Amino acid sequence: MKNTILVALLFFSSIMIGQNMKDGWTISTQKTVDNYTGIVAANGRIGILPSQKLFEIESVILNNVFEKESELGVSKILKGMNFGNLKIEINGEKVSNDNVSDWKQTLNMKTAAFTTSCTFKNIATIEYTIYALRNVQYAGYIDVTITPKKNCDIKVTGQILTDNSYKKPLSTYRVLRDNETTMPILQTVAKSQFEKHTVATTATFVWPNINSGRAEQRPELTHEKISDFQNTLSFSKTLKKNESYNFVWTAAECTTQDFDDPQTESERFVIFNLLTPKKDLLAQHKKLWETLWEGDIIIEGDLQSQLDVRLALYHLYAFSRGDSNLSISPMGLSSQGYNGHIFWDTELWMYPPLLLLNQDIAKSLVNYRSDRIEKAKEKAINFGYKGAMFPWESDDTGEEATPAWALTGTFEHHITADIAIAFWNYYRVTKDKKWLEERGYPMLKEIAAYWVSRATKNSDGSYSIKNVVGANEFAPNVDDNAFTNGAAITALEFATKAAKELEKEPVQIWDEVAKNIKLHYFPDGITMEHAQYKGEIIKQADVNLLSYPLHIVTDKEHIVKDLKYYEPKLAEEGPAMAQSVFAILYARLGDSKEAFRLFKRSYEPNKRQPFGALAEAATSNNPYFATGAGGMLQIVLFGFGGLDITDEGIIQKNPILPKEWKSLIIKGIGPDKKTYTITH
Asked: In 10 A of CB 208, how many CB atoms?
């Protein structure tokens, strides 16, 4: 298998040759490939996944909009109507990958713009850019320019394509009018498969160089409803040699998850885009991304690492919003992977980099959990516990969304402690006492109550947490899992700290249980993964999380022992985050060589062509794995950068650079937007 990975990496490297990557912000490809993986254009609400086929997109993913995956199944994030497929004909011939040259695709991470360009025969050059507008969060925007090399006739068709899983689609075309302003509206409204939601998609053409509201200045539009599942709008135009022609296809997609009247709201967003000058609309989008990039990581001397790190950070920004109180699923808005549910992947892996770099987004992630605390309290009661017990997989409801056959949903309980850790860390970084009073402490108090009720007191006065699935999911239904116990200890300690911060009296039993929860060790001092562990292969890091991020195992010799023991036991098909934890620990131990080896190992075998989208594991093909991106970014921030989150806020201690890098600059850290520069 290692040889297979090497061959894949060599092939991937050959694809990357010729890319325009020198600015550290753009990634390009000029070859179509098998197993193509595009980079999603997303704004935290919708994700638009490009295709290598001209004028097509693979899918539109709608954040926090769920329907049942099957009649007896659990919830699954909704794939929206596809509004991104255009059809362009020049002189009566459809433009496709088969009749163009100079095909190229470029992702501009700075502006979140995905551009495709080509030359159609010797007749015209074409370029179009896909945006998921950051400022108009339910809308997509496809900006097209055709430059003829000779006089030619074009026909352009925009489409709303509705998957046949939708029910009762109603596809229409209307021209709305307000005095002299006319607004052509192509629209499809349908019910999701089991009719939980009404979904409405509205689209239109925009001509940025004319007054789009004046019908006499626009080309004549032709509507054709091929079926209720394929609704189209077209125009034709004669173009003159060397005179560039620009138009936009824009669409908005709304559902009853977010709107009582999604049909009318989708119309309003499209009318806003129609009548707002393109220059102004895109300037707002770019300004919001410029603000996001105030939190940035700059690597000098290793362009490939720079691009890899920025692509990871781009995805975390693209999959989230600071104004949403929503969270991020493992595959973000790139696919329906893991049903779009929310796991510990957010709190343990994606959240820490965002907490350092963007506290607004971090606040949304923690608020997502506190908005669902009542369901967590109900779950605790239903299973015979106290406090709040969070689901392993969460959706819009806050109830358990894991398929019943998966033991993780019933027994992987460390998620509840992971959430507590994220909450206290938010306060540590922001010192927002009002938030701590209203959301932070109520959460920490309920989680502490849960762990007290979840722990079993042994005859010797110690406490055990029995019958769990730990971070290593290869070992179900074990007692005293190292990470589960360590996370519970930390959650109880943080609840006590929060109480004291608010000058409240901590519950005495929190401290007693925290100090007496058992961790098990082999005779030579190596930490046992659980009470019954006998050296089996593990899925991912578990014991080593006691050193980072929990800071329970702090003795250097002990950290090294655990590292050396567990790294060889990692399954090759396991997710990338284990390598990230090991890399951070080696960096903190001062071993930059081992840290850099594991930094690369944490993601390079997982890169998929042609842009470097990350799959979950070296042996899988399910990009984009935002969890792996979070782990990789933690290596840079908390490993090489030496940053740490403490009760005193963000501190820096013993940063270290790989020899391959000349310098590392980390910008926009914490509320004060500090810059840290690390050099040799």
From this structure: 15
CA-wise closest residue to 253 among 63, 536, 419, 381: 63
Q: In sequence order, what are the beta bridge partners of 538?
A: 570
**pLDDT band at 16, cuts 50/70/90?**
very low
In a domain, 88, yes or no: yes
Cβ 477 vs Cβ 466: under 8 Å: no
| Claim to verify: residue 43 and residue 112 sit in the same structural domain | yes
Residue 178: partners with Cβ closer than 8 Å, 6 or more residues away: none
Within this chain, do residues 241 and 287 fall inside the same structural domain, yes or no?
yes
For the stretch 420-465, pLDDT in tens is: 999 999 999 999 999 999 999 999 999 999 999 999 999 999 999 9
CATH number at residue 50: 2.70.98.40
| Full residue range of the structural domain in which residue 241 is found | 35-291
In a domain, 28, yes or no: no
Q: Which of 520, 534, 629, 524 is nearest to 580 (CA)?
A: 629
Cis peptide before 610 (omega within 30 of 0): yes
Tell whether 556 and 413 lie within a shared domain. yes
Rounded to whole angstroms, the Cα distance separating 258 from 325 reads 13
92: left (phi over 0), alpha (psi -120 to 50) or beta: left
Peptide bond into 624 cis (omega under 30): yes
Closest by CA position to 644, among listed 626, 668, 670: 670
Q: End-to-end CA distance of the chain, in Å?
A: 36
Q: Are 643 and 635 in contact (CB under 8 A)?
A: no
Residues 107 and 214 both lie in one domain: yes
Among candidate residues 96, 183, 82, the one with its CA nearest the CA of residue 140: 82
Q: What one-character DSSP code corresponds to residue 478?
A: B
Per the structure, how many domains does the chain have? Answer: 2
Asked if residue 17 has pLDDT above 90, the reply is: no
| Angle (CA) 468 470 476, round 5° | 55
Q: Which of 242, 265, 291 is the last residue of a domain?
A: 291
- Tell whether 15 is covered by a domain: no
| Catalytic annotation present for 127 | no
Per the annotation, the verdict on 195 as an active-site residue is no
Tell which residue, 671, 629, 662, has the closest CA to residue 298.
Answer: 662
Pairwise CA distance, residues 7 & 616, whole Å: 19
The predicted-structure confidence for 575-621, as pLDDT tens digits, reads as follows 888 899 999 999 999 999 999 999 999 999 999 999 999 999 888 88
Peptide bond into 605 cis (omega under 30): no
- Same domain as 335, residue 475: yes
Q: How many Cβ atoms sit within 10 Å of the Cβ of residue 176?
A: 12
Q: Are strands 124-132 and 46-50 parallel, antiparallel or unpaired?
A: unpaired
Residues 332 and 283 in one domain: no
Which residue in 265, 473, 493, 501 is the catalytic one?
Answer: 473
- Of 291, 324, 348, which residue sits at a domain end? 291
Length of the chain, in residues? 680
Q: What is the DSSP letter of 604?
A: G
Burial of 439 (0-12, 13-18, 19+ CB in 10 A): buried
Give the CA count within 13 Å in the CB-facing half-sphere of 652: 15
Query: For residue 674, what are its two tokens?
Result: 């500090």
- Which helix (H) or strand (E) segment holds residue 420: the answer is helix 414-430
User: Could you tell me which residues are beta bridge partners of residue 298?
Assistant: 665
Tokens coding 188: 């499809």
pTM of the entire predicted model: 0.95
